[in-house]
Amino acid sequence: MLNLSNVDVMYGKFVAVKNVSMRVNEGEIVALIGSNGAGKSTLLKSISGLCTDLNGEIVFKDEKMRCCKCHEKISRGIVHVPEGRKLFPKLTVMENLQMGAYSKCARKEAKNTIKRVFELFPRLEERKHQLAGSMSGGEQQMCAIGRGMMGLPKLLLLDEPSLGLAPKLVKTVFETIKKINDDGITILLAEQNTTMSLKYSDRFYILENGTIVNEQSKDSMADDSAIREKYFGLV
Ligand code: ATP
Fold first, then answer.
1. Signal peptide: which range, if any (predicted)?
2. What lines the ligand 1 site, CB under 6 Å?
3. Is 68 helix (H, G, I), strand (E, B) or coil?
4. From the alpha carbon of 43, which atom of ligand 1 is closest?
5. Domain housing 48
6. Cβ-proximal residues to 75 (8 Å cutoff; 6+ apart), any chain
7. Bridge partners of 215?
8. What's the CATH number where 14 sits?
9. In the chain, how many domains are there?
10. What is the tens place of the pLDDT at every residue in 23-61?
């Protein structure tokens, strides 16, 4: 579904992502693992079109995407839920969700999609008239993922969905990500919570200093205790 070939991403003279080649197959949950500053967010931004200074090629559903603008990518089904949620704090939950229905097709489907979002996150329905900025961190994360779903993603990019959440809520968020995936939405997520990523993802790319240093599947990981210990803190 998504193929990156030899992608470099630059901020001025600084090369934050170097020579990355990776793929995401339709239906998968793939996790980008790496410490602070490894380049996870930059890589997601290059896929969604927020970072534009890049070399290499990004192909989505057999279409070259490197030069596409964000709005073109959204219309083709690439939706990004950024780190830190980036909600509109002075708008209500409902208004935030409606803002996510960007493309013509998404607007047409908005009523049905909102129903599904409320099934996945009943708390959002209870709070639909509350200002997003007054919600708890966990509720805001739900709203950000819900807003992403309103864009009718084929590929949903989730940047640190568990950041700053209590352990019980982290579990709920990952369970919901799995349900979204079961609805047929492919997921690429950047995470520092390696335990939950290991549990819920099909494959993993490990990033260090902007470079992919390892690729693992759930099965290969199960057989490789050295990798489990080095990158996931598990024996
Ligand atoms: P974290 O888990 O802390 O969010 P990350 O793996 O997502 O980290 P990035 O945010 O992609 O890492 O940052 C990768 C590198 O690019 C870092 O060295 C960072 O300082 C740098 N960087 C990120 N954004 C910019 C920017 N707008 N201008 C210059 N450098 C940037």
1. none
2. 11, 14, 16, 34, 36-42, 83, 192
3. coil
4. 11
5. 2-232
6. 102, 103, 105
7. 205
8. 3.40.50.300
9. 1
10. 999 999 999 998 889 999 999 999 999 998 999 999 999
